[in-house]
Structure formats: structure tokens, C-alpha cells
Design brief:
Elements (H helix, E strand, L loop, with lengths): L4 H5 L8 E4 L10 E4 L5 H8 L4 E5 L8 H13 L4 E4 L5 H4 L2 H10 L3 E3 L8 H14 L6 H10 L8 H12 L1 E6 L5 E5 L7 H10 L9 E5 L2 E10 L2 E9 L6 H17 L8 H10 L3 H8 L9 E8 L4 H14 L1 E8 L2 E8 L5 H18 L6 E6 L3 H22 L5 E2 L1 H16 L1 H8 L4 H4 L2 H17 L4 H8 L3 H15 L9 H17 L1
Parallel strand pairs: 2-3, 3-4, 4-5, 14-15
Antiparallel strand pairs: 1-5, 6-7, 6-10, 8-9, 9-10, 11-13, 11-14, 12-13
Length: 525
């Protein structure tokens, strides 16, 4: 429904208001309402001037001079402001100079002066105008009406959080605001029948982040309504709890729209996502910031079990696996997602004995192996970390080596700290060059002395046997598409060429690094 300035003037709240300028532009559309709290033109331009917005203010009485008034009127008009409504102006003809009114007429900005009645508040005007915008003549819902009254009472409340809390208490609902990574940012709880974590788990299971409309989810008998909201250009999720099952889905959807509009009117900025910032600090190696954030994020250093970086797990099957893991293992997963990439940590929910931690670490490895069943998934993890220091070092190891470890181990989908550490060391050897690298490369020199094709064939078999098949001849034959007997024959020839038993404990470490360096050479060059 299109609502104009003229339509608003017909409302009861504007019964004794006066139109002192811009009378030719009363057909301008009104989409929303805001309160102007500054006399600084630059702040008006950046924060308060919006298209099709009715702006309420009281500063014209004594707190601005004529020049400022003219500049603000021009700024509002340039932005497409629908109308300026002034409060507490005792005598408009005296307080608003002729040049100010002439400017408003010239730029086509209607100026409405409210009657000198201290009982008329900003909230009263906002309530009636927003009711008219959202619901027109059919409006008459107690939930929405009462919520608007409390939510937009700028005289009583100092911030959005205080206003929405009172609205929730008076209308028997709850509100939880989550970051895009499903970490709670704002929690207005008026009853405790289910935990926020239970609701989040079900929200993920129902795939609410892919829904553009509000979705109803029953959380252990508690009705919750989920939907996305945009705040200052950032995506968040909000769910509303109907405590007594008193409202229809349509009413809750309207309530959500009102709350989102109120966030904009209050210029509400969500608190930072401490858990996401904690992960980002560790990724950047900023240990001091991580220590600062850990209490705010509700994290105990001793409870850190594993850190990981994954690609391709952000899908329905991945969500189910992660959710079931948290439920079955009594472990918490904390993660942030950037496109197809996920950075995360696995934590104990409570302190446990060292022998129990060993079992939990095994559970983490089992989780990663379940996630890898999708062929496109790649997971890089360090499981078994020593507090914040260890977690930061683990992320550094992952960051330095994940792009190369896939070239050294092309058949793997899950990479542990052992593969990552090996490749990290090889990268350092590669960068340093010199005699250390030369010593390892020379371990493979005997293959050059064999006939060219034979030497290349034997070296390829050795690479596959050591790096891909875990020194398993059956797997080697599978990877290479040759008979097991052929593999056994070639391994015997390799022993003869190198003049060693390649599976010997003193031989395999150096040989593994030499073969890994050879594969890295192909990537670098």
C-alpha cells in the first residue's frame, strides 16, 4: 500500500499539526520514519537522510542557527526525504525564519510543525505512521500495536536493546539475533524451556540460511520463527519465540518486519561476534587478541581439542554430520564460513580428564573422515592442540602448507598435522635450497643411472607406494592400474637400484622427504 505525506496528515496524531512549508509536495511517498538527533550537516548526510523517509526532530527550537537549518533542509531534500516533522516549536513563524521556510518551499520539502503539546512523543507519531504504512485501514493487531508502542519509545529508552526487551516482556515473545555463522549476538529471553543451542541445531538442520522467508520450527514444544535480516549491509539471522503459541505465523512475520525497521530507526549496531573474532585472531596469529577475546567468547583454553580448515562441507549433508557429532559426542563446534571455505575449532563443553581427551580427539578424527565421504571435500586439521598458543601455531601450519600438501598427497581428502608438518618442512627446504635440499634430492639420483623409461617407471612406482598408498602394495597396484605382482617386481628392482631395503626404519624418513620435494618441484616450476 502506498502511503503519502497527505495520508499521514489525515492520521489522528497530526490532527492539530501545521504545515508551514512545502505544501506542493504532500504527495511524496512515505516508506519509513526516523528521528534526527544532530545539527551537523555531514552527519545528517551520512546517517539521517534517506529516500521516502519522514524525519522527526526537535532541534529547531534553540539548538541550530538559520544557516544550519537551511543546509539541513537542502541535505534532506537532496536525499529524497518525504517530510520534516518538528516538535516543541512554540511559534513556527518566529522560530523558523522566512529564508528557512522559503528554502523548504523552493526545494520541495514539506515541514510539519506538531502542536505545542508535551504529551505527544516521537513514539506516538512513529507508531501511527508505521501502522499506516504496514497495514493501512485494516490494522488492528494488539501484538504489533503494543510492540510498536514499546519498541519505538525514544523518550523512555536509550537504545534498541532496552526497547525490544520491554516489547518482548509485554507481549510474551523472545528474540535471538545470530551472526551469519550462527553465533548468538543479541539474546532477549523471557522464558527458559529450550536452549539456544538446541534451536540453532534445528535451524541448521532445516537449512534456514537458504530461506528468504520466515520458517517455523518446533524446538522441543517451543515454537520458533526464523528468518534473515540485513543490518548495515551485513547478513544476520533472527528467530522469534512465541511463548504461549498465541500468534499466527503472519503476525510473527509482521512482528519481525517491525523489529527490523526499529533496528534501523535506532541505528542499532550488533555487538561483535566474539567467537568469530576469536577464530580470526588465531588465524592471523594474533595470540594477544585471542587471549583478550577468550573470556568474551566463553572459551576455556584447556578445552580446545582441534582446529581445522575445510572446503566443501557447507551443504545439507555436512550440516547433519556436524550437528549429530555435537549431539552424540557432547563436543562443541565453533566455525566461520567464507564462501566455500570453513575455519573452525572443536572444543570440550566441559573440563575432562586427560584420558577422556584422548577419546575425544579420536572422535574428532572420526568426524573428519565422515565429512570426507563427499569427493569434493578437503579438510586440513591439527587435532591435539595445546591451548591458545597451540591453536594459533596450528592455524599457521595449515595456512602455510594447505595449498601445497594437496600436490604432495593428491589422493587424500583429509590432511593431518603429520602431512602438514612434512610439507611445511619441505617448503622450507625448497626455499632455503643449498646443501640440505641437495642431500635429499641426491637420494633419488640412482634412478637416473637406470635406462630412462625404466628409471622413470620405477620412480613413479616408488612415489605412489610411499606417498599415496602408505607403503601398501595392493593399494599401489590399484592407484597405478597394474597387477600386484608387477608392483612387487618393481619394488624389488627399486631395492636393487637404491641398494637398500626401502621399508627400513632408517631409510623411509629421508626417502619420504626426497619424494615430497620432487613433487613440490613440479608445482614450483
Amino acid at each position: 500500500m502506498k502511503v503519502t505525506v497527505n495520508d499521514c496528515l489525515a492520521l489522528e496524531i497530526f490532527k492539530n499539526a501545521r504545515i508551514v512549508a512545502g505544501t506542493k509536495k504532500l504527495e511524496r511517498r512515505v516508506r519509513t520514519v526516523s528521528v534526527l538527533e544532530t545539527t551537523q550537516v555531514e552527519q545528517v548526510r551520512n546517517h539521517f537522510a534517506h529516500d521516502s523517509e519522514m524525519v522527526l526532530s526537535g532541534f529547531f527550537n534553540t539548538r541550530a542557527d538559520e544557516h544550519q537549518q537551511i543546509e539541513i533542509i537542502r541535505t534532506l531534500s537532496e536525499a529524497g526525504t518525504a517530510a520534516l516533522v518538528l516538535f516543541y516549536v512554540r511559534s513556527p513563524e518566529l522560530e523558523l525564519k522566512s529564508d528557512v521556510l522559503a528554502t523548504a518551499d523552493r526545494v520541495g520539502l514539506p515541514i510539519i510543525v506538531m502542536p505545542d503539546d508535551l504529551d505527544i512523543k516521537y513514539a506516538d507519531v512513529i507508531k501511527q505512521v508505521m501502522e499506516n504504512i504496514l497495514f493501512g485501514d485494516n490494522f488492528g493487531n494488539r501484538l504489533i500495536s503494543n510492540t510498536i508502542f514499546h519498541l519505538l519509545n525514544f523518550e523512555k529508552h536509550s537504545n534498541f536493546q532496552s526497547a525490544v526487551r520491554e516489547a518482548a516482556i509485554n507481549n510474551d515473545f523472545q528474540l535471538i539475533l545470530l551472526s551469519e555463522d550462527f553465533n548468538p549476538i543479541l539474546s532477549i529471553e523471557t522464558r527458559h524451556k529450550a536452549t539456544i543451542q538446541d534451536a540453532i541445531n534445528l535451524g541448521r538442520e532445516r537449512d534456514v540460511e537458504r530461506s528468504a522467508v520466515y520458517t517455523m520450527i518446533d524446538v522441543n514444544g517451543v515454537l520458533t520463527y526464523w528468518g534473515p535480516v540485513m543490518i548495515s549491509g551485513e547478513k544476520y539471522f533472527m528467530f522469534i519465540v512465541d511463548n504461549e503459541d498465541s500468534y499466527s505465523a503472519g503476525e510473527i512475520t509482521k512482528l519481525a518486519e517491525i523489529i527490523e525497521l526499529a533496528m534501523g530507526m535506532w541505528k542499532y549496531t550488533p555487538e561483535r561476534d566474539a567467537r568469530a573474532e576469536f577464530i580470526k585472531a588465531l588465524r592471523r596469529g594474533n595470540k594477544s587478541l585471542a587471549y583478550t577475546l577468550k573470556e568474551e567468547a566463553g572459551i576455556e583454553s584447556d578445552n580446545l581439542l582441534s582446529v581445522f580448515f575445510a572446503r566443501g562441507i557447507e551443504n545439507e549433508e555436512g550440516y547433519k554430520i556436524l550437528m549429530n557429532f555435537e549431539k552424540d559426542e557432547d563436543l562443541g563446534i565453533m566455525k566461520i564460513t567464507e564462501g566455500e571455505e570453513t575455519y573452525g575449532m572443536i572444543l570440550n563443553r566441559k573440563g575432562q580428564a586427560e584420558e577422556m581427551k584422548s577419546a575425544k580427539r579420536a572422535s574428532c578424527i572420526s568426524l573428519f573422515n565422515k565429512l570426507k565421504e563427499e569427493k569434493t571435500v578437503r579438510i586440513f586439521h591439527v587435532t591435539g592442540v595445546d591451548g591458545i598458543e597451540g591453536a594459533a601455531d596450528a592455524y599457521r601450519l595449515i595456512s602455510e602448507s594447505w595449498g601445497f600438501v594437496q600436490n604432495v598427497f593428491p589422493y587424500k581428502r583429509v590432511f593431518t598435522k603429520y602431512e602438514l608438518a612434512l610439507v611445511s618442512n619441505c617448503i622450507n627446504i625448497q626455499l632455503q635450497g643449498g646443501y640440505v635440499k641437495k642431500n635429499y634430492i641426491e637420494l633419488l639420483e640412482p634412478f637416473k643411472e637406470a635406462k630412462e623409461n625404466k628409471g622413470r617407471q620405477l620412480l613413479e612406482t616408488l612415489e605412489t607406494f610411499v606417498l599415496d598408498a602408505g607403503m601398501n602394495s595392493a593399494k599401489t597396484s590399484e592407484f597405478m592400474g597394474i597387477h600386484t605382482n608387477t608392483v612387487q617386481y618393481r619394488l624389488k628392482k627399486i631395492n636393487e637400484v637404491l641398494d637398500v631395503e626401502i621399508t627400513g626404519n632408517r631409510v623411509i624418513p629421508g626417502l619420504t622427504i626426497a619424494l615430497a620435494l620432487k613433487r613440490l618441484e613440479r608445482v614450483v616450476h
